[in-house]
Amino acid sequence: MRPVIGVISDVKARDGHVVHGVTEKYIYAVARGAQAMPVLIPGTISAVDADMAPERVVIDEILDLVDALFLPGSPSNVGPQHYGDAPHDPPLPADPHRDDISLPLIRAALERGVPLFGVCRGFQEMNVALGGTLFQKLYAQPGRFDHREDSSLDIAGQYAPVHEVSLAPDGVLASLAGATNWRVNSLHGQGVADLAPGVVVEAQAEDGTIEAFRVPDAPGFNLAIQWHPEWRFWQDRLSSGVFTAFGTAARLSAERRRGGARLKAAG
Ligand SMILES: N[C@@H](CCC(=O)NCCCC(=O)O)C(=O)O
Q1: How far apart are CA 147 and CA 170, in angstroms?
Q2: Atom 4 of ligand 1, residue of closest alpha carbon
Q3: Is the ipTM of this structure higher than 0.90?
Q4: Which of 63, 111, 202, 264 could lock onto 171 through a cystine, CB 3.0 to 4.6 A?
Q5: Which CA distances in Å does 203 have to 57, 116, 172?
Q6: What are the residues facing 112 on neighbouring strands?
Q7: What's the domain range around 46?
Q8: 153 domain-assigned
Q9: 216: domain CATH number?
Q10: Residue 50 maps to a domain
């Protein structure tokens, strides 16, 4: 049996309905890259219909169910009220029903040693959940590059590597890459402003933008990456290494939770 990795869903309006869902590339990277069983975790109920009662969310119930947690990217932004700011541009997409689940879940997962991996929005959520702040418009910050994708390109062009990051020489990423520099893709308008206390930088862009971090004192595997390693992870040594390491941590967590029964990666 594969380890179970909970994947946090976005909550979006579509055709008059509210949909809780995740882009397929993330599900595939968890299933094939981490060799795990992805299970989608819904956000809080939006109660769009006045007759719907809000559902009770019990964070511990989710953590009892999964061996590890994955926080995917999304075009939406973490609500700035969570880091003590007002929205600078209200039309930018928000997802309060994802924030309601992901922020407390991150803190609880780290405390309980549940392996945790966040990508792009997930990376930003991890920084905010731990007390850090975000630039709402990284591209408007003096001296910073524009880290947004070129939307005139096709999808493969948008996710192609566009800039270099320096990897901390003693970090997890450098050891997976076997190098201290890597070329990565870049599709984000926001970015880390103040890094949360207690985290260490794993990767940084040339303009100073923090691109990856981890919480060294948390008892389990954890990693936050601003770029998109899920995109065609099998074509990039570091991307596949990251999902393999996450899957290994999820398997160990599953073995511990199931009393030492060995879980094998599928061939
Ligand atoms: N809203 C944030 C987060 C960026 C992000 O997660 N983008 C992902 C886009 C779609 C995808 O590949 O899932 C920001 O813009 O900084």
Answers
A1: 26
A2: 188
A3: yes
A4: 202
A5: 34, 17, 10
A6: none
A7: 4-257
A8: yes
A9: 3.40.50.880
A10: yes
CA distances from 104 to 112, 166, 180 (A): 12, 30, 33
- Ligand 1 center to 263 CA (angstroms): 33
Between CA 122 and CA 140 the distance in angstroms is 22
Q: At residue 45, does pLDDT exceed 90? A: no
**Domain annotation covers residue 262:** no
Backbone angles phi, psi at 28, to 5 degrees: -65, -40
Collapsing DSSP to helix, strand or coil, 256 comes out as: helix
From the candidates 125, 149, 202, 230, give the one annotated as an active-site residue.
230
Q: What would the mean pLDDT of 137-161 be, rounded to a whole number?
A: 97
**Does ligand 1 have an atom closer than 6 angstroms to the CB of 127?**
no
Is 188 touching ligand 1 by the criterion CB < 6 Å? yes
The CA 254 to ligand 1 mean position distance, Å, reads 30
Task: Tell me what pLDDT residue 261 has.
Answer: 61
- Residue 42, classed as helix, strand or coil, is coil
Catalytic: which of 120, 149, 202, 211? 120
Give the number of domains in the chain. Answer: 1
Is residue 228 among the annotated active site residues? Answer: yes
Q: Residue 50 pLDDT > 70, yes or no? A: no
Does ligand 1 lie within 6 Å of residue 73's CB atom? yes
